[in-house]
Amino acid sequence: MLSKEDNDLLTRVSHGAPMGRMMKQHWWIPAALSDKLEADGKPLRVRLFGENYVAFRATGGKVGFFDEACPHRGASMALARNEDNALRCIYHGWKFSVEGVTVAVPTQPANEAEYCKHVPLKHYPVREEAGIVWVWLGEGDTPPKFPELPFVGLPRENFVVFRQKVNANWLQGVETTMDSAHLGVLHQSWLKGFGDIEFSSANMAPVYHLATKPFGFRYAAVRQLKDARAYVRTNSFVMPWYGIVSPNDTEVKGGSIFFSVPIDDENIWYWQMTYRSSEKLVPNKTHHFSDADSWPPLPPGPPEDNWGQDREAMKNGHFTGFTQMLGTEDFAVIMSMGPISDRTKEYLGAGDGAVLAVRRCLMSALREFIAGQVPALARHEQIDYLQTPPVSRVVSSEAEWRAFL
To answer: Is the domain of 207 the same as that of 344?
Structure first.
């Protein structure tokens, strides 16, 4: 269990909290789906770390990212006219270029050009990669190096990316991603038909083996099969929130990446990307959605109705009663913990090794940041992010899976 002080340090990200300041300073933040921004189209309201922003695609295709409040009187720039590679506030017509320069103040009767030079518009560096608009929200003029994660540079047909807004703290999402022990329990109804690697009651409790890495850590969850072999699934935790999960198909080169990005202390965007490193992605049933900004489905009911759990489906063989999608099961359990889980009351066991390792990584980095240092796990120039992808294999000896760590 954690102390209340440590739980607050790890979970609180808004209003100047150290964790939020550290992540904004040293990492690029996934902010929006690229496809949601149309040239000269509707600006998108974005909330991250308890602060409000606006993103838009200008006439020439470049993305701008500003504080939402107009620096004049605070009207929302989401209402602005998006035209001429700029946003024009509809309140008084003040105009700001996509580069973050004030270019027109029509209410200034004299010396307009000079006055424009002194309007303090707050704008932020952006980068588009893998169908996502990323933003750097830190202080200073030099963003950190963008991490060369496995999806960087892939053609659009090699990946699918989507997200869902969930009423839960960001750490609850990260811990669930890295908690391999829940896979054979919570998701057992979705894992039928995987042959040797189908998770039966005989192998619900994996044995964890963990190796620290410059980017965070990698762990192997080893499950014994019915014969002398073992199913070994390795996952990677990449600071500050990436869980990179290997595919069940051992012939596939690629995987899935999950990242829980704080909207504020009590809400997240839960992102998922499935990618193939050297071939076109063939979508499966988890990729058939109508809105990439709302997938997988949330639990269908309120807490008062047990989040819409279907007890009839449970009687008929479905383990959880959340039949919508595998991810819906994850959302149900992390929402059920409350907006911020009270880790002072939890009772952990051997199956929680990866969860504890996530907390150690975060707390170690946070202590370095509070001490005025660049955290070791944020020194991107020294980290080979191409070494992050994990693997899954059925093996016949310990030496085989040890090589995966």
So the answer is: yes
